[in-house]
Amino acid sequence: MIIIYLETNSIMAIAKGRNKELEDFVYQSSDKLKFVIPSICLMETLVAIEREEKRSQSFSQTIQIEMNEGKRNKELANSDSFVNYLELCLIDYGKLLRDFRKRFLKILEYLKNHGELIEPRIEILESTLNAPLIPGKNQKRDDFILQVILVHAQNNLSMSKVFFSENTKDFDNTNIQQVLANVGINYFSKVSNLQRWLNEQ
User: Fold this and answer.
1) Stated pTM of the model
2) H or E element in which residue 71 lies
3) Confidence of residue 170 (pLDDT cuts 50, 70, 90)
């Protein structure tokens, strides 16, 4: 069994259709792989969804205002076609949102059946606040996620472990990779490299 640690960005990338390679890798994975996710990532995905809903509401309201203006300006050239275009935009946008929600629920259902949540502890949060591994005042959540993963890995030293994240800004540096390596975790930011490594095992 090989542990594959995932974080918030991977869940959202699959839900939003941003990374087909990652999506195929997760859904077509073998029973020899176990996806492990810090439970705080679920809260982060909820925050991201609330942000999306707020943005979509603002967008829809703006389009509706412009449609009403277009309908009032009947004598302006192309006003009818402009209104029709906006109406089509709203319809397509609604389809995008429904597809996003459907895809998000699908990845949650998959992880419910094929994944494992790991819970944080107060001591880990204290470590993030007092001795963060990722520098920067706005990196506390990523640091918290990292330290939760490290504690879990420390308790599973005999198992092969991988951390996949496209967040190269925070995780793809020499210091963090060394910290991961110390507990037997290989870091990958590209599915092709991860797949190549798995084929060699």
Assistant:
1) 0.85
2) helix 40-72
3) confident
Q: Burial of 40 by CB count in 10 Å (0-12 exposed, 13-18 middle, 19+ buried)?
A: buried
The pLDDT, as a whole number, for residue 175 is 87
Q: Alpha-carbon distance 147 to 162, whole Å?
A: 15
Q: What is the DSSP letter of 66?
A: H
Number of H helices, E strands in the chain: 9, 5
Q: Is the pLDDT of residue 36 over 90?
A: yes
Q: Which is it for strands 2-5 and 185-188: parallel, antiparallel or unpaired?
A: unpaired
Write out the two tokens for 168.
């190269």
Contact (CB, 8 A) for 188 and 176 = no
SS3 1: coil
Q: Which residues contact 149 (CB under 8 A, 6 or more apart)?
A: 5, 36, 38, 118, 163, 185
Nearest to 36 by CA among 11, 17, 61, 67: 11
Cα radius of gyration (the chain): 21
